[in-house]
Write a structure and sequence with these properties.
The complex is a heterodimer of chains A (235) and B (164). The longest helix of chain A has 18 residues. Chain A is built from 7 helices and 10 strands. Chain A is α+β, with helices and mostly antiparallel strands and 235 residues long. In chain A, strand 1 and strand 2 form a beta hairpin. Chain A has one domain: S-adenosyl-L-methionine-dependent methyltransferases (Single Sheet), CATH 2.20.130.20. Chain A is 30% helix and 27% strand. With 164 residues, chain B is mainly α. Chain B folds into 2 domains: 86 residues, Rna Polymerase Sigma Factor, Chain: A, CATH 1.10.1740.10; 76 residues, Winged helix-like DNA-binding domain superfamily/Winged helix DNA-binding domain (Arc Repressor Mutant, subunit A), CATH 1.10.10.10. Classes of the chains: A alpha+beta (235), B mainly alpha (164). Chains A and B meet through helix 1, helix 3, helix 4, strand 6 and strand 8 of A and helix 1, helix 2, helix 4, strand 1 and helix 5 of B. Strand 8 of chain A pairs antiparallel with strand 1 of chain B, so a sheet runs across the interface. The structure holds zinc ion. Zinc ion (ZN) binds next to helix 3 of chain A.
C-alpha cells in the first residue's frame, strides 16, 4: 500500500477538489485516511458555520450574514495570539499603554459604578506574564446583562470575549465577580471593556457602546461601560 | 468585492465553500491569531477572483491555494500588519493552537537563518507536512529541482541544530 495521504491530498479529498489518481486509489482502500477525510470535512463544515466565516462570505460575496445557531456561535471563541515570530521585545514594546489603572476605571452613571478588572490568582491585577491564566471580573452594579470585549489599542480593533458573538449574557452579582472562561495572556497590551445593560440589545448596538466607551464618547442611555488595561510582561 | 469578471455568483459561492476552511486553517497556523488569519483568507480570495483564469487552469488547484496562502501570510508577517493581542480565550481547539505555537516557533527560528524561498519550502515540508513531490507541485518546480533545494535546506538545518 502506498503512503497515507498528505495534508494536501486530504484537503483535496475532503473538499471535492481535483486530486491525483494514485491518492484516490489509496483512499479507496485505507480506513485511516477515510477517517481523516471525514474529520476534516466535519471541521470544514464547523468552520464555515462560524460567524467569522459568515461575515467573510458576506464581505466577499455581498450576501447578508445568515443567522447562526447560538451553540455554533459560542463554540467559536475569538482566539487571538501575537506572533512569536516577531521579536518579543517589539511585540511588547510597540504599543505600550500607560500603566494599569489599579482601580477599574471610568465606570459611570448612577446605580453605583460598574467596573471590570483582570483577576490573576484571584486578585485584581494590571500586569501579567505571558502564558499566565487570568479571568475577567466585573462589577455589574445591579445591571443584569454584560458583554466583555478586548480592545487592541494597536489596531483599534474590538473583539468580543464573552459571549463570543458579542451579545449580552447574564451578569454575575457582586462587586467584582468572575465572568467567562479563563484567558491566556499573550504578548501585547490590551484593554478589557465591559458593556452592561438592563435589557437585551442587538450586537451592533452593544459593540457601538463599547467603541464609544474606548473613544471617550457618551454612551446611549441604555448602556453602561467600564474598562481596564492589562500590561503584559515577558515570561 | 463581488466583482470577479467571468465568475458568476454560484461559482464564487462554490469556491468560497470549498477553499475557505483550507485557507483559514493554514493561515491560522502561520499567523497565530484569528483576526489575521481572516485577513489572509480575504486576500487569498481577492487574488483568486483576480487571477481566476490561471487558477482554473491549474491541474491541481489546491496547490495554488497552498502556494498563495503561504505567500499572503508571509507578506502579512513581513509587513508586520499583524495585530497585537494580550488576551485570548484558552484554546477550545487545542490541536490548532498547539500546531500554531509550534509553527510560530519554527518560523521565528527560520526567519533569522533562511531566505524567503527556503522558508516557504520549509513551511510546506515541515509545517504542512507535504511530500517533496507536492512541494514541487505547489511551487511549480521539477521534482529534481525540489530534491536539490530540500537537500540544501537539510544541510543548513543540520548546521542550525536540526529541523523537525
Ligand atoms: Zn492511508
Amino acid at each position: 500500500m502506498s503512503e497515507h495521504l498528505s495534508s494536501l491530498a486530504l484537503d483535496e479529498a475532503a473538499t471535492g477538489a481535483p486530486f491525483e489518481a494514485a491518492d484516490r486509489d489509496h483512499l479507496a482502500g485505507c480506513a485511516q485516511c477515510q477517517t481523516a477525510v471525514q474529520e476534516r470535512q466535519a471541521l470544514n463544515a464547523r468552520l464555515l458555520a462560524t460567524p467569522q466565516a459568515q461575515a467573510m462570505r458576506a464581505r466577499l460575496l455581498g450576501r447578508p450574514v445568515q443567522q447562526q445557531p447560538a451553540a455554533v456561535a459560542r463554540a467559536t471563541l475569538v482566539r487571538r495570539v501575537v506572533l512569536t515570530a516577531l521579536p518579543l521585545a517589539a511585540a511588547i514594546g510597540l504599543f505600550f499603554t500607560a500603566g494599569f489603572q489599579a482601580r477599574p476605571d471610568d465606570g459611570d452613571r448612577i446605580k453605583g459604578s460598574v467596573s471590570v478588572g483582570v483577576l490573576l490568582d484571584g486578585r485584581l491585577t494590571g500586569r501579567a506574564k505571558v502564558g499566565a491564566k487570568v479571568t475577567v471580573a466585573v462589577g455589574a452594579a445591579g445591571h443584569g446583562l454584560v458583554s466583555v470585549f478586548a480592545f487592541d489599542p494597536a489596531s483599534s480593533s474590538l473583539e468580543p470575549l464573552f459571549p463570543s458573538d458579542g451579545s449580552l449574557t447574564a451578569a454575575p452579582k457582586g462587586a467584582s465577580a468572575p465572568v467567562g472562561a479563563p484567558l491566556e495572556v499573550t504578548p501585547g497590551t490590551t484593554r478589557v471593556v465591559a458593556v452592561f445593560a438592563d435589557s437585551p440589545a442587538a450586537p451592533e448596538a452593544i459593540r457601538a457602546a463599547a467603541l464609544a466607551h474606548v473613544r471617550g464618547q457618551p454612551l446611549p442611555p441604555t448602556f453602561w461601560a467600564a474598562s481596564a488595561s492589562l500590561e503584559v510582561e515577558p515570561k | 468585492m463581488a466583482e470577479a469578471p467571468g465568475l458568476d455568483k454560484p461559482a464564487l459561492e462554490a469556491l468560497f465553500t470549498r477553499y475557505t476552511p483550507v485557507i483559514y486553517r493554514r493561515a491560522r497556523v502561520l499567523m497565530g491569531n484569528d483576526a489575521d488569519a481572516w485577513d489572509a483568507v480575504q486576500e487569498v480570495f481577492e487574488r483568486m477572483w483576480h487571477h481566476h483564469e490561471g487558477f482554473r487552469g491549474e491541474a491541481r488547484p489546491m496547490t495554488w491555494v497552498y502556494r498563495i496562502t503561504t505567500n499572503v501570510c508571509f507578506n502579512l508577517l513581513r509587513g508586520k500588519k499583524v495585530r497585537q493581542a494580550a488576551l485570548r480565550p484558552v484554546a477550545d481547539e487545542p490541536t490548532i493552537d498547539a500546531a500554531s505555537a509550534e509553527a510560530r516557533e519554527l518560523l521565528s527560528k527560520w526567519a533569522a537563518h533562511l531566505d524567503e524561498r527556503e522558508q516557504t519550502v520549509a513551511t510546506l515540508l515541515y509545517i504542512d507536512g507535504l511530500t517533496q513531490e507536492e512541494v514541487a507541485d505547489v511551487l511549480g518546480l521539477s521534482r529534481k529541482t525540489i530534491g536539490r533545494e530540500v537537500d540544501a535546506l537539510r544541510k543548513k538545518a543540520e548546521a542550525l541544530g536540526g529541523l523537525p
